[in-house]
Design a protein that fits this description.
Blueprint (H helix, E strand, L loop, with lengths): L3 E9 L3 E4 H4 L7 H8 L3 E4 L7 H15 L9 E5 L10 H8 L6 E5 L5 H14 L6 E7 L12 H4 L5 E9 L6 E9 L7 E2 L22 H4 L2 H5 L6 E2 L1 H22 L9 E4 L4 H11 L10 H4 L6 H11 L8 E8 L3 E8 L1
Parallel strand pairs: 4-5, 4-6, 11-12
Antiparallel strand pairs: 1-7, 2-3, 6-7, 8-13, 9-10, 12-13
The structure holds oxa(dethia)-CoA.
């Protein structure tokens, strides 16, 4: 069976740097609290009106496509991971197809939040393995800054997230043993609501407060003034519970990838963990007995960019010459759902 290689990789970070100190203008928080609890010093916010999840994705994709030695016209499939799409529907995949003037290829959107990019990579990998496609564009992109509660009420969520995009082009590997060795996908929906954005959503049909609405009022079950007035349109997160689950599932899924291919943590050249919280990454590093040079973190500069964080970190590590040919690289992510995933790559 064919395997797939990451033939090109690119990233895009908006130029607008927002420091922890900048956030104190909107909410009661401090640089000290944010650095101590998360490791984040600053993040990037997309331009309010000129940049979207799709425009950032296109910038990252242009670099990935060029580095893969191909062109937008040769891309034969798009897989796009995001939780902050330009529209509720249609998804961002078709917007990339349009913006880059691609052929009438398939475009698939993935809704798996923090593990979205690794899920997307796994989906693309299967299409390469079967020989169905030869040049797949895989994207993770997020514009969080447009949908966060910047009052003190929302500070436990809003200080964490940042904007950005990363993209790779997957192609059939050209030599034996090169490329994606395996991917591992998991979910546990038991606690789906502890890291979630509930509204707008069809769950509203279950709410007692709307039970007697007639057809003319039905639109309010989806998006009401009350929802906005009571800030129910912002993401909710029970941070400590997410933290506790993350530090169990991250090491588990990384070891699953390594053991599945006959490796141990000492064989790893680079672990790229989803940039959720520097404390989580440090815990995972310690648990697996990895040295500092075996783990790449950049949450300090960019915050948590959800589906974009793994490809941005991978791209930055690559651009800094920290990943070389034949290196063993593991991507791993955990987030809302819960969903978690890993990919082991021979570079
Ligand atoms: O990528 C998606 C997956 N998400 C994650 O992996 C997130 C995992 N969780 C975390 O990273 C951490 O739980 C957080 C960084 C979100 C929060 O850190 P924590 O140490 O768990 O804090 P906490 O939520 O237990 O809150 C501690 C205190 C509270 O005050 P009281 O009740 O002790 O008086 C919060 O109100 O810190 C307060 N607090 C803040 N204070 C200043 C919460 N957010 C802030 C803030 N600035 N931004």
């Amino acid at each position: 069976m064919l395997s797939s290689k990451l033939a090109g990789i690119g990233k895009y970070l908006p130029s607008n740097v927002v420091t922890n100190q900048d956030l104190t203008a909107y909410m009661e928080t401090s640089d000290e609290w944010i650095v101590e609890r998360t490791g984040i010093k600053e993040r990037r916010y997309a331009h309010r009106t000129n940049e979207t999840t799709t425009t950032m994705a296109v910038e990252a994709a242009k670099i990935a496509i060029e580095r893969a030695g191909t062109t937008a016209a040769e891309i034969d499939f798009i897989v796009f991971a995001t939780l902050s799409p330009d529209y509720y529907f249609p998804g961002c995949g078709v917007l990339v197809q349009r913006a880059m003037g691609m052929k009438e290829i398939g475009a698939l959107d993935i809704r798996n939040q923090c593990s979205g990019f690794v899920y997307a990579l796994s989906v693309a990998d299967q299409f390469i393995k079967t020989g169905m496609y030869k040049n797949i564009l895989v994207i993770g992109s997020e514009k969080h800054s447009f949908g966060l509660d910047f009052s003190t009420r929302g500070r436990n969520v809003s200080v964490i997230f940042g904007d950005g995009a990363g993209a790779v082009v997957l192609q059939p590997a050209t030599s034996d043993g090169q490329g994606i060795l395996s991917t591992h996908l998991h979910s546990d929906g038991e606690a789906a609501e502890i890291l979630a954005m509930y509204n707008p959503g069809t769950h509203a049909n279950h709410w007692g407060e709307y039970a007697n609405f007639d057809a003319a009022e039905i639109g309010q079950m989806f998006m009401s003034h009350n929802m906005i007035d009571s800030a129910q349109n912002f993401p909710f997160m029970d941070g400590p519970s997410v933290f506790k689950k993350a530090i169990v599932k991250f090491p588990e899924v990384i070891l699953e990838a390594l053991h599945n291919n006959g490796y141990t943590p000492s064989d790893l050249n680079m672990l790229i963990p989803h940039q959720a919280n520097l404390r989580i990454a440090q815990f995972v590093q310690q648990k697996l007995g990895l040295r500092d040079d075996q783990v790449y973190n950049n949450i300090m500069q960019y915050g948590n960019t959800t589906a974009a964080s793994v490809p941005i970190a991978l791209c930055e590590a690559y651009e800094n010459n920290l990943i070389k040919e034949d290196d063993l690289v593991c991507l791993a992510a955990f987030g809302s759902g819960f969903t978690w995933a890993s990919a082991l790559i021979k570079w």
